[in-house]
């Protein structure tokens, strides 16, 4: 069964899908709406008096242009950018000749999934990577967003101003948002400059500074839109270049096609037409569907809000730890028996291990970990001292120790 990440924010029954940082959207709305309100109140109203009918058209254009900007912003932020549904299980490994395997201490080897696979697109070999989080091989040009925690088709970037990833399904709206914001900045700047020009040509005529003092809102909006136009205007030019070469921001920043052919480049006009004018594919995730109680691959589970500690989980972990410690102690005791058979290994080590083992098996013992650590350090200091030709921490008998055992060269013969 396919799953999607729960970091998204849903509104209107799944009709609007926002990113985890949707709060930044309110800052963007404030930065767009507040200058337009100042323009309409303190600049547009005076232009209406100066130009009568044309002044009304100026206000209408400002309101319509702002509505277009907000519409593109909502479509960009509240739409599925192209989330690839994640798998409940990893794909089955392919048993190919020469493929690596992991035995993991078991009798049957476990085949490892290859990290990449090769696909041929327009005669060019493209590597697709395996995503450990989504447990799937990402489609070409797909990448995993670390903020949204989702794999997104044709991932461009995660935009903090709209609080959403920019991908295959909302990239045209994002470009429309950037372009319309640039045009709105140019329009407000030109209308404020017109207002200053009218004051300078009035009766009596005024200098530039006198005109700015008489209409401070015009001076503020000219400075504000001048700075904003450099930002959104630069983004517009940059994305025009990306569309003409059929690249994404992610690919361009990583110099992915700097020294090799871009298999997705079909020419400037065709690239722009395909990106902006082609039909937007439907979402691969039904965000309005009901989630079943039991998810395939995960069994029956639920989330509980608790203020204390889950004792059941702690008991399971403690029992598993006990089993692991018993296994290690049995192995160490058996190793001590083997070494003692070779030549008089100190019995203190074996007795300490057996004592720790009995304490661990005793249900009345509460703190078994401290006892084991103490005995372990005693055993390690007594049996793992560095000798000639042997490294510290190596539990295999050194050649000097083996020379004392029974044999043609040993002293115990």
From TrEMBL:
Lipid bilayer topology: Multi-pass membrane protein
Domain Palmitoyltransferase DHHC, residue spans: 129-254
Keywords for this protein: Acyltransferase, Lipoprotein, Membrane, Palmitate, Transferase, Transmembrane, Transmembrane helix
Leader sequence segment: none
Span list, region Disordered: 84-111, 353-413
Places the protein is found: Endomembrane system
Segments crossing the lipid bilayer: 25-48, 54-76, 174-196, 216-242
Gene Ontology BP annotations: protein targeting to membrane
EC number: 2.3.1.225
Gene Ontology terms: cellular component: endoplasmic reticulum; Golgi apparatus
Catalytic activity: L-cysteinyl-[protein] + hexadecanoyl-CoA = S-hexadecanoyl-L-cysteinyl-[protein] + CoA
InterPro entries: Palmitoyltrfase_DHHC, PFA4/ZDH16/20/ERF2-like
Biased composition (Basic and acidic residues): 353-378
Any one GO molecular-function label of the UniProt entry: protein-cysteine S-palmitoyltransferase activity
Entry's free-text remark on domains: The DHHC domain is required for palmitoyltransferase activity.
Family: Belongs to the DHHC palmitoyltransferase family.
Name of this chain's protein: S-acyltransferase
UniProt source species: Ceratopteris richardii (Triangle waterfern)
